[in-house]
# Entry
Amino acid sequence: MKNATQKLNEMIAAKELEKAKAEEMIRQNVNNIAESINPINIIKNSISDFFSSKNIVNKIVGVAVVAGSGYFLKKIIEKNSSSIFNKITSMLIEIGVINYIKNNKEEIKTAGLKIIDKIFDFKISENQSEVK
# Structure
């Protein structure tokens, strides 16, 4: 009888050990879930996922360079002048700058991506820097 009792005690100890391991795994999973649904972590992960997509970063840089440069150049030339000549000149220069940027977008975008890379510490490869 001691042999059977001993085996039963060993089996109970083994099952208790399995139970303890399962409980620990459940605790870890609950902690991971609680951490993942924390609002700060959701926002941080969303922003990280957004900026880790190289296509989105490439398109944002392209749009920002084209729109921003034309707009700021127009404002610099136009300033606060009410002269129709200055307004027409600034509009033509804005169109010219936008066309220049559109025609040379790869060089400008590569420079912009290098700046973004240094700011946000991204690793953007040349293959992913094409604007569609």
